[in-house]
Design brief:
Elements (H helix, E strand, L loop, with lengths): L1 H14 L4 E15 L6 H4 L11 E14 L6 E13 L3 E14 L2 E7 L27 E11 L7 E16 L8 E15 L6 E13 L2 H5 L7 H10 L2 E2 L2 E2 L2 E13 L3 E11 L13 E9 L7 E12 L30 E2 L2 E2 L6 E2 L15 E3 L2 E12 L2 E12 L10 E3 L2 E3 L9 E15 L2 E12 L5 E12 L1
Antiparallel strand pairs: 1-2, 1-26, 2-3, 3-4, 4-5, 5-6, 6-7, 7-8, 8-9, 9-12, 10-11, 12-13, 13-14, 14-15, 15-20, 16-17, 18-19, 20-21, 21-24, 22-23, 24-25, 25-26
């Protein structure tokens, strides 16, 4: 008891150095010219659902934020954020990109609303997208209790630090394709995570490791019929801990187990990470251990103003081709993972039509027509080998962000020569064989601060290949920031 009390007191006292709120806002006007009906890949990917309309259009994005004030120190603090996008083109629409309130007590934070977030150990500025939650879709509305920043344990000489979250979200009506309920299920969302950092503050090397877990569930009695007799609280518990009911997990589970490190020199930081993905039970049996996302980045901490200055370079490698589905793969009772697709949820690992994870795993609505397609799979291409390069820097005070991605795509196991599998049972392909198709997508954004809070910028993107329809586009931006 004394140990627990000391631990909690340490959390709150440390958090007493937290800060209190400041107000700022911005408004941005965009003029967009893109290929009709084909918005370029990097215009619509990992934009937190802030996607321009295809063709010629205009957009206005307004945001206001109240955040913790680093100039003052208080135990209790609060903040809020609101971001709205309006689009005008072949149609008009308004989208709530972000809207939340938050309360901080010590190192604990309580947050409610829609949040722009990524989940896992990745480079949040240049990554091609985390495997579980990449920021590709709108944030699912949720209530979350978290320790958002690494808290150093007061024991072991500050050698260990940790952070994590526990949240409950609401997806709403979601298409269902299984059992007694054949239209929509009222669907909930749970998310939890725990990450640990090892390394004292003065050490150059720091090691990271942890996991995240997400699950969709809801309306089990309507889906599975009268045979499902678990009360609501037990269903929630089964979803959170991944417990099975009649040899099947309740809900659609997905997450990653991550590891990585940072190494600091005086002027440079080297970072590396890897995410292992789990969807069914393959990772437990090491059947899909070869799949995952690997990244390495180099950050320039030297801030001298020069004509050319690079700030960060990132290289990533994504491999999701195995899935434990080859005849030579380690045995797993669940067979091939069929990433992001689900037998119960017709639109799989998505929200509002967009994938929640890496955008390289693509939906049938985003790929070229005529590719082999199992009608029960919302994601018709989840076996991917991809290389991704990102670069940030400045040339004569014009700041730039560049991305170049090349992928080789193999459909699903259901459209491969092997067919889908469950345990040692293989079901021959029924919808044609997907031949390898390649795709190249590029992106370049440049912007310059004009003074007085004004910034002008231009974005260009281009797609070439056989997976997506060839497309291109340009966005002109003018923004004003208020303090």
């Amino acid at each position: 008891m004394k140990f627990c009390f000391t631990f909690l007191l340490g959390l709150i006292v440390t958090g007493g150095m937290a800060q209190t709120g400041t107000l700022n806002g911005s408004i941005e006007v965009q003029g967009i010219g893109a290929t009709a009906h084909n918005t370029p890949f990097w215009f619509r990917s990992n934009q937190f659902g802030s996607v321009p309309l295809p063709g010629t259009s205009a957009s206005v994005i307004g945001a206001i934020h109240i955040d913790y004030d680093t100039m003052r120190s208080r135990l209790i603090d609060w903040g809020a954020s609101l971001e709205v996008r309006g689009d005008m083109g072949e149609k008009a629409r308004a989208t709530l990109i972000e809207g939340y309130v938050k309360l901080r007590i010590g190192v604990f934070e309580l947050k409610a609303g829609r949040v722009k977030e990524m989940m896992g150990l990745v480079d949040t500025a240049l990554s091609s997208g985390a495997l579980a939650i990449s920021g590709n879709a709108l944030g699912i509305p949720k209530v979350e209790l978290s320790i958002p920043n690494y808290y150093q344990l007061p024991w072991f000489g500050d050698l260990f630090a940790f952070k994590g979250n526990f949240s409950q979200g609401w997806i709403g009506e979601f298409p269902n394709q299984y059992g007694h309920l054949t239209s929509h299920a009222n669907t909930y969302f749970h998310q939890s995570s725990l990450y640990v950092r090892m390394g004292r503050p003065e050490w150059a090397l720091k090691l990271y490791g942890g996991f995240n877990h997400q699950v969709m569930w809801g309306d089990e009695r309507e889906v599975f019929g009268p045979g499902y007799n678990q009360p609501g609280w037990k269903t929630f518990l089964y979803a959170v801990v991944g417990k099975t009911w009649h040899n099947s997990k309740v809900g659609n589970h997905l997450g990653t187990i991550d590891m990585g490190f940072d190494y600091d020199w005086e002027d440079l930081r080297l970072s590396a990470y890897h995410q292992f993905i789990y969807d069914e039970g393959g990772l437990y049996h090491l059947a899909n251990i070869s799949d995952g996302l690997s990244g390495i980045s180099l950050t320039n901490k030297y801030d001298e103003q020069r004509v050319f200055h690079w700030s960060k370079v990132l290289i990533e490698f994504l491999y999701t081709k195995n899935q434990g589905g080859y005849p030579s793969s380690r045995y797993s009772p669940s067979g091939d993972e069929n990433y992001y697709n689900n037998y119960e949820y017709a639109q799989g690992w998505s929200y509002k039509g967009l994938g929640l994870g890496t955008p390289f795993i693509s939906t049938r609505t985003s790929t070229r027509p005529g590719l082999p397609d199992d009608s029960s799979d919302y994601f018709n291409n989840n076996r991917v080998v991809a290389f991704h390069l990102g670069l940030q820097g400045a040339v004569d005070k014009w700041y730039f962000t560049a991305k170049l991605s090349y992928s080789m795509n193999y459909g699903t196991f259901g459209t491969s020569i092997y067919g889908h599998s469950t345990g040692r049972l293989y079901v021959p392909p029924k919808y044609g064989i997907w031949q390898e198709v390649s795709q190249l997508s590029s992106f370049l954004e440049v912007k310059k601060e004009l003074g007085g809070g004004y910034t002008v910028g231009c974005v260009g993107a281009l797609d070439q290949g056989k997976l997506l329809n060839n497309s291109g586009g340009v966005i002109l931006k003018l923004s004003k920031t208020f303090y």
